[in-house]
Write a structure and sequence with these properties.
Layout lengths: L1 H14 L5 H41 L9 H10 L1 E2 L2 E2 L1 H8 L7 H16 L7 H7 L13 H10 L8 H22 L18
Antiparallel strand pairs: 1-2
Helix pairs in contact: 1-2, 2-3, 2-4, 2-5, 2-8, 5-6, 5-8
């Protein structure tokens, strides 16, 4: 997905190569770059939801002390972690202790970024996101267009200020994978029983 976004970024930049420099700069700054940036932010929102789904699955598998369970029991465990339309994150966190991971703060930044993009009416960085990243108390443009926010987010996850949103998305994908592996390695997980189905059942 990131490769596709990079290709679109390069395509748009190539289209501007023969244009008047001033007009091309305005086109890139106010239209093309924010469009590409928003694609990356949408990808990061999807990534955060993927992380949440895996955490729910791990928490459901950690409910039975590591003993082998039926698929129905796993489904029941998942449903027990529901809270209305959301999830019982306090219980999930208590089981998995994600805060022990060295990647936890990066995942918190990803969570706050996703929430800000989805719920902040102004489309600007939410206050809790700015506070978490240690951002200065200044006025910000909307998330896809704010150069200052992009720079600070890049530095927060270990990149340089010149990193693009594609670079940032790449880093978050790597960090998310490492985070989930770390959380999984410390959890006592049950295996779901696999039942043997005779091949003859499918004969006609």
């Amino acid at each position: 997905m990131i490769s596709i976004i990079r290709a679109e970024e390069q395509r748009r930049a190539a289209l501007l190569s023969g244009e008047d420099p001033e007009a091309a700069y305005d086109q890139w700054l106010f239209r093309d770059a924010p469009f590409v940036n928003e694609l990356c932010i949408i990808l990061l929102v999807a990534l955060r939801h993927r992380v949440e789904r895996v955490l729910v699955s791990l928490a459901a598998l950690s409910a039975d002390g590591g003993r082998e369970i039926e698929g129905e029991q796993y489904g029941y465990n998942v449903e027990q972690l529901r809270k209305g339309r959301g999830w019982k994150w306090k219980e999930i966190d208590a089981r998995l202790k994600p805060e022990l991971s060295e990647f936890y703060r990066s995942m918190e930044a990803l969570r706050l970024l996703a929430n800000s993009y989805k719920h902040e009416h102004s489309e600007r960085p939410a206050e809790d996101l700015k506070d978490f990243l240690g951002l200065p108390r200044v006025d910000y443009d909307v998330l896809p267009a704010s150069d200052l926010f992009r720079q600070k987010l890049a530095v927060f996850i270990g990149l340089g200020e010149d990193a693009t949103y594609c670079d940032i998305a790449d880093r978050f994908v790597d960090v998310a994978e490492s985070f989930l592996k770390d959380v999984k390695s410390r959890a006592t997980l049950s295996k779901i029983k696999r039942h043997f189905i005779p091949l003859g059942r499918f004969a006609h």
